[in-house]
Amino acid sequence: MMTEKLLQVENLKTWFYVTDGIIKAVDGSSFDVNKREVLGLVGESGCGKSVTSRSIMRLVPDPPGKIVGGKIFFEGVDLLSITEEEMRKYRGSKIAMSFQDPMTYLNPVFKVGDQIAEALMIHQGMEKKEALEKSVELMEMVKIQDAHRRAQDYPHQLSGGMRQRILLAMGISCNPQLLIADEPTTALDVIVQAEVLDLLDDLKRRLNLSMILITHNMGVVAQLADRIAIMYAGRIMELSDVRTIFNKPKNPYTIGLIESLPKMEEEQDRLVSITGDVPDLINPPSGCRFHPRCPYAKPICSKEIPEFKQYKEGHMVACHRADDF
């Protein structure tokens, strides 16, 4: 079956110019998102996932950040070539984002219903009364009980899971085609995490959404994503469908992430972890950026950057040793 691409990111480079040098937070990443698909963008903290999402929305703070290269096509339009005024027509109405820390992005002095209504008034041109009624409908859609009363609450009066639902309500308020959910289950207990993931799946089906699900948790994307892009130190290391990533990974970093998952069928005294830390992106390692932590590294890995190329149809890998796994 032919898939129709909604978003195409090509060789994206987003750098931050700071006193100590240039942080190459995203440094040549490429991936795409099909219509009505969930793409999981996975990697450790500091790998560039959130900067990638902000680059798509053109919300990188300048200074110190700057998109220095690449293309971002949305339905064939390069979002990096249009004016800021034109980009405002895409934000919210066509591409929406649910941020990872609700208490940072919800205004503590305004009621949550008013904050959802504000997006409707700005992007949909609604009058305040109509927008407030619609905000209650959206709160019901994201399964907040007693939405009429809860719309009068301030953010601090809601639980973490409910605040995350408010952000999702704001995200879907203008019927976007693409929703970027940045770490939607962070700091939530496992029961609430499961509820939020079920909600995302329900919204995807009901609204025919495409979605980028950003997370460091392989278990989360296994439940919701259709395809997974593995990101490390500003670059995409592997991209394929969920089944291939979990059953036939071809990059050592992907293998390390999968091995770090707890296994229900085995007794484990300690969880497996990847040794070392994400590198300093002002002075990243030469060659493959994962090679200092890679148990399979060979001399070539420290000298040459592996090309991100097709291993098999639908399976992209950046690794000198992909054939060995």
Description:
With about 325 residues, the protein is of the alpha/beta class. About 30% of the residues lie in helices and about 25% in strands. The relative contact order is 0.14. The model has no long low-confidence stretch (mean pLDDT about 90).
Quick recap:
By secondary structure, this protein is of the alpha/beta class.
Topology, number of strands: 12
Question: Which CATH-level-2 architecture of the largest domain?
Answer: 3-Layer(aba) Sandwich
Domains counted in the coordinates: how many? 2
Strand order of the largest sheet: 6-7-8-3-9-10-12-11
Give the helix/strand class: alpha/beta
Can you summarize the main beta sheet?
A: 8 strands, mixed
Overall geometry: globular
**Secondary-structure element order, as H and E?**
EEEHEEHEHHHHHEHEHEEHHEE
**Helix segment tally:** 11
Q: Strand percentage, roughly?
A: 15-25%
Segments where pLDDT lies below 50 for 5+ residues?
none
Computed over alpha carbons, the radius of gyration is 20 Å
CATH class of the largest domain: Alpha Beta
